[in-house]
Amino acid sequence: MATVSAVTLRNALCQLQCRLTGVPQHAFGYVGLVSNYCQVRTKKQTKAQYKLEPDWFVNRKNRRQGKALTGDNEDFVQEVIGDTYRNQDSMLKEDPWPRQEYHRNTRRTGVVAIKLGVVPQWTKEGHKFFTTLLQVIDNHVIRYTPPEEFEKTSGWKPWWGQRFGSVVVGAMSSDPRNFSKAYNNLFTEAGVPPKKKLTRFLVTPDAAIQPGTPLTAMHFRAGDHVDVQAKTIDYGFQGVVKRWGMKGMPASHGVTKAHRKMGSTGGGGDKSGIWKGKKMPGHMGDKWRILKGLKIWRINTKYNVLYVQGPNIPGNTHGVVRIYDTILRYKRPAPDNHPPMPTWAEEDSQQGVELEYFDENLHVMSEASVSYSQ
């Protein structure tokens, strides 16, 4: 009867585990039978930083005509543009769409905001923390696409099924002379002037919203949790010390022209090469990043400013950010205490709109912070 050595059995078990897990054999240790610990590199290949727009993208820019107009002629042109969009047909002139009830899986549309800066706030217990000011400027719904039509468009993912429709939101109205005719025609259905920024949000059919509907900071409530998405600051090509925080090489004692280099890239032994995902010099920043579950502590309705938890919102000051209801399960609003559906309307505030709304745990600066007993 043939005998099986421990080494042969160990190698057989290692190969079997590699086939089941998809991890290369050199990632496992060889102490004992099979090591349970292994480092798996799952980072995808680096994508190109700049890409050409698809062929179906409309030409946005337009060569500005009539730059040498006099002041009177410029005022006349602006008056004509205002009358044109003021008298333009809009879906809001029709009967409003019926408002649906909020459910646990409801996903509403989001808004586009501008990052203003960071200011401190205090809780009622006296704890100091930082918030980021995000201003919602001139947001309107441009288009709504139901799920059965959205699945036929570019950018649809098969695993979405027919759960989501699409809402296009535009922000910051601008002069139509700055854009091409094809781009201006995108806003005909909504009946609003062309916008500088456009973005798309996935919504469930019960949160369908009528094109032309304005979106303000009242779309959210103080105390709600949101996800904020923006592009990080673009630092260009950086070395490993700046990009990954590596120590670098020694400053003296024989080191020449290698003080900020990374050192070995991983040769010898079980590595036997450079693994995928190795931290190296490269392009730093200019990537879309999402911060999830940020609390809204305060809302200013006069300037449409949201005071969002944290000082680390991605992007530069005056950069564009996307804000929508959080997808975190335990921070989503409950069906019995939900935000306005599908967005805030004037009939939702029977007693009028206050200048500012505060979270119940936030200290209001106009109130007394210290009280003395008589």
Explain what this protein looks like in three dimensions.
Keywords: Ribonucleoprotein, Ribosomal protein. This is Large ribosomal subunit protein uL3m. GO terms for molecular function: structural constituent of ribosome. InterPro entries: Ribosomal_uL3 (IPR000597), Ribosomal_uL3_bac/org-type (IPR019927), Transl_B-barrel_sf (IPR009000). It holds the Pfam family Ribosomal_L3. There is one protein chain. This protein is α+β, with helices and mostly antiparallel strands and 374 residues long. Among the domains are: 7-39, no CATH class; 106-234 and 285-358, Beta Barrel (Elongation Factor Tu (Ef-tu), domain 3). Helix content is 12%, strand content 24%. The protein contains five helices and 13 strands. The strands form three sheets. It has a six-stranded antiparallel barrel with strand order 1-2-11-10-7-12. It has a four-stranded antiparallel sheet with strand order 5-4-3-6. β1 (111-122) and β2 form a beta hairpin. The longest helix is centred in the N-terminal third of the chain and has 16 residues, at 6-21. The radius of gyration is 28 Å and the shape is globular. It starts with 5 loop residues before the first helix and ends in a 16-residue tail after the last strand. 21% of the residues are buried. Mean pLDDT is 84; it is low at 25-37.
